[in-house]
Amino acid sequence: MGDRSKHFSWYEIACDCGCGYAMGIKKLIDKLEVAREIADIPFHINSWCRCVEHNPAVGGVAGSSHIQGLAVDIRCNTKTRRIIYDALRQAGFTRLGIGRTFIHADVDNSKPDAVWRCK
User: Fold this and answer.
1) Do 49 and 13 contact (CB within 8 A), yes or no?
2) In whole angstroms, what is the distance from residue 48 CA to residue 66 CA?
3) What pLDDT is attached to residue 1?
4) 70 with 106: CB under 8 angstroms?
């Protein structure tokens, strides 16, 4: 995947449980690259792909877009939250969850566009 993404490694995409499950969905990667360029700050990935077994272990909901590789959680703080959020919106993300320490962004067309608060 090295030549497919300037800022994100296959390691960041893979499930955190160590099982090796990873899906590099081009649409998500491309939009994240655009947002990362707009923001001009690093995006630290908390969670990208999750295997079915690991998803509930980290509080993921049934049918999570992370299982299909269609979602990413980006670490943020009070200083970076607005920068990252604005860049994601400018890059065309229409499904965003805003948490205290992260922003969820996904490209899951099976779900309605929305911006919501995460726990």
Assistant:
1) yes
2) 6
3) 41
4) yes
Angle at 41 between CA 39 and CA 46, to 5 degrees: 100
DSSP state of 17: T
Q: Encode pLDDT of 16-75 as tens digits.
A: 999 999 987 899 999 999 999 999 999 999 999 999 999 999 999 999 999 999 999 999
Measured CA to CA, the distance from residue 88 to residue 94 in angstroms comes to 8
63: left (phi over 0), alpha (psi -120 to 50) or beta: left
pTM value surpassing 0.85: yes
Domains and CATH numbers, the chain: 10-117 (3.30.1380.10)
What is the C-alpha separation between 97 and 50, in angstroms, rounded? 17
- State the helix-helix crossing angle for 26-39 and 81-90, rounded to 10 degrees: 130
Three-state DSSP at 18 gives coil
- DSSP codes, 49-64: ---TTHHHHTTPPTT-
